[in-house]
């Protein structure tokens, strides 16, 4: 089921299934018959160590499909799109099992970043619709004042 | 680079890139322009707790593309295919970062299983070419005598 619980137009969250047993859980991520599946470009992982922040990034052409199977992540998304009805809004999502095991779809044109908010390393998985291409992304520093979110305060 | 270091015809291993920094590593998994990419069916995760064994499974139609971004896994593959030149062979692979961070491609028709051989939970990621379909797979118990591999001895 796709829900639109976020404050930014185009960002989608989908609750993912977890099938736990005593050996360890099987965890859904993305299927080619999911309603929000576009196409497969690349799957990669981003490990985030406790307290670390990876921000900010914007993809001009690529849609991200992100889940967090290990650890706890705070994901922040900022809408700076000139034509957007939700311009200026922030989404602040806390992602992790077992209570917030979601797939988050971030369309092109949005700033996003994430930090590990647990005491153990987290793993973020992205199944993007295009493979990595450094010419289609932009970056800003973690503390760039043009984005109204202060990672330092939020990570205290 | 695709290498054929295994003892079973059709099983492929590809060394994957890790880009480490002080925040945590970015880890490659699969791109749609990789030489061994077929198509995207489903991405899912299998958590394996220390000492746990998940075996045996065979997919009649599906090709698995597996990597282990977290923890340490022993993967065992058995070739029982009637027409195979490597019938009767076993592949025993130890997978995990940073030294054995590989993508393993297991074609249809092979038995496979895995166990966590570290002291912390491991995470296996599978980007298969078809979505899960329970009618195309078979299972055998971990200790089925028809497969010449003894998980109990190997896990002591």
List the helices and strands and how they pair.
Two copies of one chain form a homodimer.
Chain A: E1 2-3, E2 12-15, E3 18-19, E4 26-31, E5 42-48, E6 53-59, E7 64-70, E8 73-78, E9 90-95, E10 102-106, E11 111-116, E12 122-128, E13 137-139, H1 151-154
Antiparallel strand pairs in A: 1-2, 2-10, 3-4, 5-12, 6-11, 6-13, 7-10, 7-12, 8-9, 8-11
Protein model, in words:
- 2 copies of one chain form a homodimer.
- The relative contact order of chain A is 0.29.
- In chain A, strand 3 and strand 4 (26-31) form a beta hairpin.
- The mean pLDDT of chain A is 94.
- A 6-stranded antiparallel beta sheet of chain A has the order 1-2-10-7-12-5, with no helix packed on it. A 5-stranded antiparallel beta sheet of chain A has the order 9-8-11-6-13, with no helix packed on it. A two-stranded antiparallel ribbon of chain A has the order 3-4.
- Chain A has 156 residues and is mostly beta strands.
- Chain A contains 1 helix and 13 strands, in the order βββββββββββββα.
- Helices cover 3% and strands 44% of the residues of chain A.
- Chain A has one helix at residues 151-154; strands at residues 2-3, 12-15, 18-19, 26-31, 42-48, 53-59, 64-70, 73-78, 90-95, 102-106, 111-116, 122-128, 137-139.
- Strand 4 (26-31) of chain A pairs antiparallel with strand 5 of chain B.
Please supply descriptive tags for the structure shown above.
homodimer, 156 residues, mainly beta, six-stranded antiparallel sheet, five-stranded antiparallel sheet, globular
């Amino acid at each position: 089921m796709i829900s639109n619980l976020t404050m930014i137009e185009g960002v989608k969250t989908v609750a993912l299934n977890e099938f736990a047993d005593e050996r360890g859980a099987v965890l859904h991520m993305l299927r080619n018959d999911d309603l929000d599946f576009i196409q497969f470009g690349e799957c990669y992982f981003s490990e985030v160590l406790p307290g670390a922040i990876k921000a900010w990034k914007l993809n001009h052409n690529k849609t991200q499909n992100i889940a967090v199977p290990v650890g706890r992540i705070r994901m922040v998304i900022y809408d700076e799109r000139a034509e957007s009805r939700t311009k200026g809004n922030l989404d602040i999502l806390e992602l992790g099992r077992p209570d917030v095991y979601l797939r988050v779809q971030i369309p092109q044109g949005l700033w996003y970043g994430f930090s590990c908010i647990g005491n153990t390393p987290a793993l973020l998985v992205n199944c993007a619709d295009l493979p990595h291409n450094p010419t289609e992304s932009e970056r800003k520093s973690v503390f760039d004042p043009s984005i109204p979110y202060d990672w330092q305060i939020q990570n205290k």
